[in-house]
Design a protein that fits this description.
235 residues, alpha/beta, six-stranded mixed β-sheet, five-stranded mixed β-sheet, 8 helices, 11 strands
């Protein structure tokens, strides 16, 4: 499976990432904010847009939906109760996993070692819990973090500078941090599950090194959920 990352400057919110994935000549667009650029890429590379979908239905992620929907054979609305568990592109399968928490309709897409996470999981942080259902969001994040360590993470926004600044404050002695900063130099911004476990304090609920910081928050720290919930108070 191939993947191309597109960046769209959404007014008031900064850069949003959209993705085109394809196998053979069949493609799917996920969060296609940069609609014109995505359609141009398809034309240039002889790709047929089979599926249009989103990680969730917030306005910054669906900005290109109206234009793209005229070109896609299949439209998948993550807010629908009937979204499929998977779809195919060429000879490859794309899994669709519900991950409510950031929003009620959040989903992630997994294929060929690549996970498109929208605002559920970022490089270096996680999304805001707009649903206020923290136990459900923790369950979703636990499912995402259960993917193999080598799984590549493609998130919904370019907030890398902000996230790494927070990490530097929370976990200044992290020996993996300097190496982590080098992912900024890639053509496409992505991380891995393994890297996030080492560096991202908002998914490192099993890392005892952070307990001293969590203790300052004066919250219960008996379970992995408690440790995560404490950290989310400084998110």
């Amino acid at each position: 499976m191939n993947i191309e990352q597109f960046k769209f400057d959404y007014p008031g919110l900064g850069f949003v990432f959209g993705y085109l994935i394809w196998s053979g000549f069949e493609a799917a667009v996920i969060d296609g904010c940069a609609a014109e650029e995505i359609l141009g890429f398809c034309d240039k590379n002889g790709l047929k847009l089979k599926v249009m979908t989103n990680t969730h239905m917030h306005s910054d992620h669906i900005a290109g939906n109206e234009k793209l929907s005229a070109h896609a054979a299949v439209l998948i609305d993550p807010s629908s109760k009937d979204i499929p568990e998977s779809f195919t592109l060429g000879d490859d399968r794309v899994e669709v996993l519900r991950t409510p928490g950031h929003s009620a309709d959040s989903v992630v897409f997994y294929t060929d070692g690549k996970l498109i996470t929208g605002d559920t999981l970022f490089t270096g942080t996680v999304g805001n819990c707009y649903t206020k259902d923290y136990p459900l969001y923790f369950k979703s994040l636990s499912a995402v973090m259960a993917y193999p360590d080598e799984t590549e993470i493609y998130c919904g926004h370019d907030i890398f500078e902000y996230a790494t600044g927070v990490i530097r404050e929370i976990d200044p002695d992290n020996t993996d941090f300097e190496a982590y900063l080098r992912i900024r130099n890639r053509k496409q911004l992505f991380s891995t599950i393994g890297l996030e476990k080492k560096v991202n304090p908002f998914v490192s609920w099993h890392d005892g090194r952070l307990d001293s910081y969590r203790g300052k928050l004066k919250m219960q720290l008996d379970t992995p959920y408690d440790k995560w919930r404490a950290m989310m108070t400084v998110h």
